[in-house]
Specification:
The protein is of the alpha/beta class. The protein is 39% helix and 16% strand. The protein contains 12 helices and 12 strands. The protein has a 12-stranded mixed beta sheet, with helices on both faces. Helix 9 links the parallel strand 8 and strand 9. The relative contact order is 0.17.
């Protein structure tokens, strides 16, 4: 079904460089552009082997139309798994406009990358941005790529961790979301002690096994303003969040679990550690936010152009740039590839760490 260009991939072994599948994302967005810009930087593939999963013709079309050959990798020189796109569907893909055709193409790229990775051809996947509305228009009803990855991998215990390294201080921000792509009005009902235990355990495992951080300090957000103000501004903290946190402290005596921290002040220390414009004592190793915007507004405020989304709990590494399809600037040659480069770098580091852990056992 899929054509593997260039040499066949070798079997996984700790002595090999991480083998990463790089999906194009929605072909109507900036995915093809940022990928060609990213691979043009020789430092990106210095420590890993990259294979683009997408459509060769679309890559060539982007390469020729942008006319930025000095800043773009030539698709003819890349290792590509050419995922066939029906001619009629391909004719309906319009740069700058996400639709059912672009959604069908991006879904096909993901399906191919996941299948190849589960078959052992790759150690991890770096995904280009997709449009959830385009997936829905194509008949694929998933909240996002993370949920598709989890379903195809057969896991129900997974999470979205956002990682960014400050260009100002070198400090690393790590933020896990307890809930992700659900309406705000459903957040309070979705959050439970059982859910938070699952997410915290995932975070601790990731910190220890993938990032090599033992005895971590983790900051956990409250749900309500002022963390409920002792029940005056919401009852969730008093009813179950504080008791749950006390139980987790007893279960993890080697960890420092701070919280529940008022959501408006939890991000002060990370901001100081990120920008280095005032002294900060002991910023946390990771932050657990209870819902999407509570965690991602500060992440994107500090690190919009370099944050990386990594899916934890999967049997393989998956990272993605923390930006969308940017249909409004697609095809203009002005997209920033910084986050895609960071996503590949993080995936390389995570795979290498997993291989070291496997070798040490």
């Amino acid at each position: 079904m899929y054509q593997l260009n260039h040499h066949q991939l070798v079997n996984s072994h700790p002595s090999h460089r991480p083998r990463l599948a790089l999906t194009l994302g929605d072909p109507a967005g900036i995915g093809t552009e940022v990928i060609l810009k990213t691979i043009a930087d020789p430092a990106v593939s210095q420590n890993c082997n990259l294979t683009v999963v997408g459509n060769r013709d679309l890559l060539l079309k982007t390469y020729q139309q942008l006319n930025l050959s000095e800043n773009l990798a030539n698709p003819n020189h890349l290792q590509i798994i050419d995922v066939p796109v029906d001619r009629e569907i391909a004719s309906q893909i319009l740069i700058g406009t996400g639709n059912a055709a672009s959604g069908a193409a991006s879904f096909a790229y993901m399906e191919c990358a996941i299948a190849q990775t589960l078959a052992g051809e790759f150690d991890g996947i770096v995904t280009g941005p997709i449009a959830k509305s385009a997936w829905k228009a194509a008949g694929y009803h998933y909240p996002g790529q993370t949920e598709l990855l989890a379903q195809k991998s057969g896991v129900d215990r997974f999470g979205m961790l956002f990682v960014a390294r400050s260009p100002h201080t070198g400090w690393t921000l790590r933020t896990l979301l307890a809930t992700t792509h659900i309406p705000l009005r459903q957040v309070a009902d979705t959050l439970t002690p059982q859910l938070l235990t699952k997410k915290l355990d995932l975070l601790v495992e990731c910190l220890e096994q993938d990032l090599g951080l033992e005895n971590a300090r983790i900051a956990i957000a409250g749900l309500n303003p002022h963390s409920g103000e002792q029940g005056q501004l919401g009852h969730e903290e008093q009813d179950w969040l504080i008791p749950w946190l006390e139980q987790e402290r007893q279960k993890h005596p080697n960890l420092q679990l701070d919280g529940p921290i008022p959501p408006d002040t939890m991000w002060v220390k990370p901001g100081q550690a990120w920008y280095g414009n005032s002294p900060v004592q002991n910023p946390a190793d990771a932050y657990l936010a209870l819902y999407h915007d509570q965690g991602l507004i500060p992440v994107k405020l500090m690190a919009f152009d370099r944050a990386v989304n990594t899916s934890i709990g999967l049997p393989f590494v998956r990272t993605s740039p923390d930006h969308g399809t940017a249909f409004d600037i697609a095809g203009q040659g002005i997209a920033d590839a910084t986050s895609m480069k960071a996503a590949i770098q993080l995936a390389t580091e995570l795979v290498s760490q997993r291989l070291r852990v496997t070798l040490a056992r």
